[in-house]
């Protein structure tokens, strides 16, 4: 068994354990705090879930490095060796207000190459997973590679609140009108999972952090999806970035006709 298959088996058990604990915590009062602004929420469950993963990784894989949103991981400056990038709850606002539509997101890289990706819809118990070069799966069922898409037939994930207050806004508004539909789910992990399974054709974000996109990028790329920043540049995994994640064909069209258009 390869180290990655073995690691996957362990992570799947940890994810299931984390899910049980998150579900149990929904039966109790949440301890809710704010971070960078009044809408940037964090709860005791975000922190406890990250602590759970960090504790397990440190115990079983002490030489691995961890980037975690809530800060319980390491100070990671480079991608040498094996690096875990963890968002313990992606979609915290949904978690607090809706009690659904939130995910655990994990990406694992070796020397900068994405190896394993996990997006876990806790309420629906849907686990999206990819192993680089071995395919992507939803609850163990293989996900079909992504076919080419076109703007006129596309449903895209986008948060309208993030439309920039500059000349680029007009192009974004035109794009919203040209596509078949726009959806805003409030969880980057969910939007990546939906592009992976064809429920969305593209996902656009003006600014995400590594833990928002690491797991999703690995899964999408395994399916032939394309993930860049909004200028078409490769995403730097340890840096905040805008994100354009899309089917092939559609990605090129979005860049050429809208995002890079003058
Ligand atoms: C947020 C969600 C949201 C995205 C934000 C992220 P969090 O993550 O993914 O969809 O628009 O930029 O910060 O804070 O719920 O983990
Ligand atoms: Ca997040
Ligand atoms: Ca989070």
How does this model look, in words?
The chain is α+β, with helices and mostly antiparallel strands and 262 residues long. It has seven helices and 14 strands. The strands form three sheets. The chain has a seven-stranded mixed β-sheet with strand order 3-4-5-6-7-8-9, sandwiched between helices. The chain has a five-stranded mixed β-sheet with strand order 11-10-12-14-13, with helices on both faces. Strands 1-2 form a two-stranded antiparallel sheet. Helix 1 runs antiparallel to helix 2. The longest helix is centred in the N-terminal third of the chain and has 23 residues. The model has no long low-confidence stretch (mean pLDDT 96). The structure holds D-MYO-inositol-1-phosphate and calcium ion (2 copies). The site of one calcium ion has 5 residues, from strand 4 and helix 6.
Keywords:
binds calcium ion, 14 strands, globular, 5-stranded mixed beta sheet, 262 residues, binds D-MYO-inositol-1-phosphate, alpha+beta
What general outline do the C-alpha atoms trace?
Answer: globular
- Would you tell me the overall average pLDDT? 96
The unique ligands bound to this protein are: D-MYO-inositol-1-phosphate, calcium ion
Number of strands: 14
Largest sheet: 7 strands, mixed
pLDDT < 50 stretches? none
Helix content range: 25-40%
Q: What letter string, H or E per element, gives the SSE order?
A: HEEHEEHEEEEEEHEHEHEEH
Instruction: Determine the N-to-C terminus distance.
Output: 52 Å
Query: Structural class, from helix and strand content?
Result: alpha+beta
Number of helices: 7
The amount of beta strand, in percent, is: 25-35%
